[in-house]
Design brief:
By secondary structure, the protein is an all-alpha fold. It is built from five helices and no strands.
Length: about 120
């Protein structure tokens, strides 16, 4: 059993008071940028009109060409493909970084193993 009951979770989802607007590789920018595909963009604009910042312009899109091209493919390729591809890249870099760290700390690891066997 979790910390919250199912009823408490459903109530929090349907009666939320705080919406955390974030971005991922599937969302171009946060809702306050000129160029965004954030699903909460319209809600953000609606609430912005109620604030002292209602006349503030949206932030300009300052992504470089590589990020814009990447986003184009993310937006137009099937989501399942994009997620699988991102997972493959993430795991490849993770393995590369682990091997790099192992090489860097090889002597320390060998010494630790050696000292551990003496006990």
């Amino acid at each position: 059993m979790g910390f919250y009951t199912q009823r408490e979770i459903e109530d929090a989802v349907s009666n939320h008071e705080i919406v955390h607007l974030t971005s991922t590789f599937l969302i171009t920018n946060r809702a306050w940028f000129e160029v965004t595909n954030n699903p909460e963009n319209e809600e953000f604009k609606r609430y912005q009109l109620l604030t002292p910042w209602k006349n503030e312009p949206a932030f300009p899109d300052r992504r470089n060409a590589i990020k814009k091209a990447t986003q184009f493919f993310v937006d137009y390729l099937p989501k399942a493909f994009v997620i699988a591809f991102a997972e493959m890249i993430y795991n490849s870099f993770r393995i590369y970084n682990i091997k790099k760290l192992q090489k860097k700390y090889r002597k320390a690891i060998l010494l630790y193993d050696f000292l551990g066997q003496e006990q």
